[in-house]
Amino acid sequence: MTSPMKDFAHQRRQRLIGIALMCCAVGLFACLDTIAKYLNTQLDTMQVAWARYAAALAVTALASNPLKIPTVARTSRLDLQIVRGLLLAASTVGNFLALRWMQLDEVLSIIFTFPFIVAIASIPLLGERIGWRRWSAILFGFGGVLLITRPGFEKVNPAALFSLGATTCYGFYAVMTRIVSRYDSNQTSLFYNNAVGTAVLLPVMPFVWQTPGSWFITLLLVVIGVLGAVGHFCLISGHKLAPASVLSPFVYTQLIWVVILGYLVFGHVPTGWTMAGASIVVGSGLYLLYRERKLGRQTTSEGVVEGPLE
After folding, report:
1. 310 CB contacts (<8 Å, ≥6 apart)?
2. Does 308 map to a domain?
3. Consecutive sets of 10 residues in the chain, 310 residues long: mean pLDDT of each?
4. Rounded to whole angstroms, how far apart are CA atoms 92 and 251?
5. With a threshold of 0.70, does the pTM exceed it?
6. Is residue 251 part of a domain?
7. What domain range is 139 assigned to?
8. Of 44, 67, 302, 308, which is most buried with the most CB atoms under 10 A?
């Protein structure tokens, strides 16, 4: 195998690993959102959001303590890390507020529009190009989301504005993650995620703090931090290996987790619309994976693929 072919095979493996990490991340985020929705019935939403970051900061410190490993807190782009942290914190608060009044599938139907934000922002910020096949797959998957939420959109819940704001922030956060991965390690980015979120929400705590009513609630507050830390480590690692425009469509796999968790925790039974839409969403994700594999086998006479992967 020639060197160009080896390089392309390596790039292809990296992208597939990045896709797998994205699927793992959104599965963990589905669990996090489910627990957060439950905690919203017990505590103030801002307290739940702060606990998510504070617990995550404590958990990650066990593995990479900046006091013992100073390089963890050293960043080449402090400005980008702070902006990323603020975007993620705003996204989390908006998402948790929406979950207080809306069902999981309703919130996700809005969140699932974030690949469009990522795709559009990736063009000027990352210099990426998106082929028509990937655009078609994204639109096809979004059509499946509309099928799932069709009954719920007859009367839009005002809380959807929180979710829309959260989605916009998250889309730009995803693009910023790709940019900052060129300068800092995964551990550094994860540290600033949690540190900025904890710091920016801390001043609100004296006004909303409620002592958890049981050890179980306290445990759940810790668990959402663990899920957030591990989930974002997978997300950051995935963006380091593959372009945001490749990874973003696979956020749709979160729908599978939400359907399962919604039934087990809240007793939400999927409707026929949900099953039909889920099939379309999953199908679009599988098609994108197929395109990755197919393009990996196509070579030119020079041994490499010409043009952008689609």
Report:
1. 130, 131, 132, 133, 134, 291, 295
2. no
3. 65 85 90 94 94 91 76 87 93 92 79 69 67 74 67 59 85 84 83 92 94 93 91 81 74 81 83 71 67 47 26
4. 16
5. yes
6. yes
7. 9-297
8. 44
